[in-house]
Each structure stands twice: as C-alpha cells, then as structure tokens.
Amino acid sequence: MASTAGTTGTSQSLERGLAILSSFHSDRPLIGVSELSRELTLSRSTAHRYISTLARLGYLQQDPDSKRYRLGPKVLDLGFSAINSMDLREISAPHLRQLSDKTGYTVNLAILDGIDVVYIERCRTARPGQWEIDLNLHVGARLPAYCTAMGKAILAFVPEARREELIARIDFAPRGPNTITDPQAFREELARIRESGIAVNNEELAYGLRSIAAPIHSHSGEVVSALNLAVHRTMVSMDELIARLGPVVTQTARDISLGMGHRVAPG
C-alpha cells in the first residue's frame, strides 16, 4: 500500500479529512461534494472518497433532500470529550456554582473560537424570569463574540495584531437594541474593558438580556476564557449590575485564574 505520509512525516489523508471537517461551521452547516472539492483543491472523486469514509465513520451525515453533508454525531462526541477534558472546566465548576448560588443568577463560562464564543460550562438558576434570557443555550453553544460580554472580555485582551484580524472578520450586524455595529466604536469598547477589567452587555445580543463578564487568565497570564453572570433587564439596573455584581464576578474570575496557576496581582 502506498504511504500517504509526506516528507515532513505527516499524513496527507489525515490532513485532508480534518480539512473537510473544518470546512463546516454554524453559518454553513450543509456543504456539497463539489464545493468541498473546489475549496480544498481535490478532484471530485477524491473528495467523494474522503467524504464517504467520514460519513461511514459517523463524522458526516448526508441530508436526504439536498444530498449535501453536515457534521455527524461523532464530531459532537469529540467536542464534548475535549470540553470535559479541559482543566479549565474542572477548576471553574465549583466557583461558578458558588457564584450562581450566592447571587441567584445564571453563570456561564466560555472560550473564544475565531469570532465566536463557545459555552463550555453553565450553572443555571430557577429564579423566576431567568428563563426569558436563557436563549436555549447549552454547553457547546456558539454566539457571536462581538455582542456578548464574555466575547468582549476575551477579545479585549487578545494581542493587538490578532485582535485586528478578528475584527476585520466580524459582520457587525444588529442583534439586539444596543448592538455595537461600528468597528471603531467596538475598538473603543474593548479599550475600556482593558482599563476596567470587566465587560458588560446591555441588550446587545437580545432584547432584555444584560450580563457582566470578567476574563480568566492561564498560568502564563494569557486570557483563555471568560465567565459571565446573566440577568433580565427587569431584575437589575445597569448601575446595580456593575456596582453590586461586578465585584463578585471579578473575584470569581480571579479565584479561577489562581486555580489555573496565574499569579493575580493584589487589589
């Protein structure tokens, strides 16, 4: 059998299979064989062979109507396995539960993936009115980073060159009554977050949703995630959100960062 390994010792077949899986995302859940063959510079027969293999293994599924393909349940299994193996999630879980129990509000943890945030932990509360802002979110859910408090809390601390690359990719479409839709205004918002250390979302994602978020640092000091506390606008004013809930959110983020090995400065 001919080897598929290249001169660098890597597997071309594996690279192609992963490239196919990486082509799918929330804005394009269905892709056809011809599209993939063009984008990956493969012959149609080669692309079809890889896709058929991935489908047989459960990593892709064919839509019976359009005959195009979507990600299969095996990919979801891998994603949850990765999330469950994260030290961050394990370290954060008791702190998030404590914050939710103390305040009575839903608390979330997310990481940045491109220009989206991906939820990796949730502590929901049964407090009346909270269901109105849950937005059917779950572990693994994705939201645009630019109109979420957690997304802004992470983006604010991304190195400038990378941050500019990400901003250039964002479609600043209005999502809620107060969505920031101007790139320069968004840059100014991120600068304020770097100064204050907290990010707020005042109905930028959806009507009625307010949240406050703080970044979480790894042992190296890099911001690797953020946590937020979400409320309905009828529950808490913006002033109260910042003055009363801001300190407990930032303290929880500091405690998790300490658990990650980060040396948090006093104050």
Shape: elongated
Main β sheet profile: 6 strands, antiparallel
Biggest β-sheet: strands ordered side by side in the sheet: 5-4-3-8-7-6
The chain-level structural class is alpha+beta
* Beta-strand percent range: 15-25%
Total domains, how many?
2
Give the termini separation. Answer: 63 Å
Task: Kindly report the CATH topology of the largest domain.
Answer: Beta-Lactamase
List keywords for this structure.
Beta-Lactamase; Arc Repressor Mutant, subunit A; 42% helix; 2 domains; two-stranded antiparallel ribbon; 9 helices; single chain; 267 residues
Give a description of the structure.
- This protein has 267 residues and is of the alpha+beta class.
- It has helices at residues 12-22, 33-39, 44-56, 73-84, 87-103, 149-155, 160-169, 183-196, 238-259, and strands spanning 60-62, 69-71, 106-113, 116-123, 142-144, 199-202, 209-217, 223-232.
- It folds into two domains: 12-75, Arc Repressor Mutant, subunit A; 86-259, 2-Layer Sandwich (Beta-Lactamase).
- The strands form two sheets. It has a six-stranded antiparallel beta sheet with strand order 5-4-3-8-7-6, with helices on both faces. The protein has a two-stranded antiparallel sheet with strand order 1-2.
- The radius of gyration is 21 Å and the shape is elongated.
- Mean pLDDT is 87; it is low at 1-7.
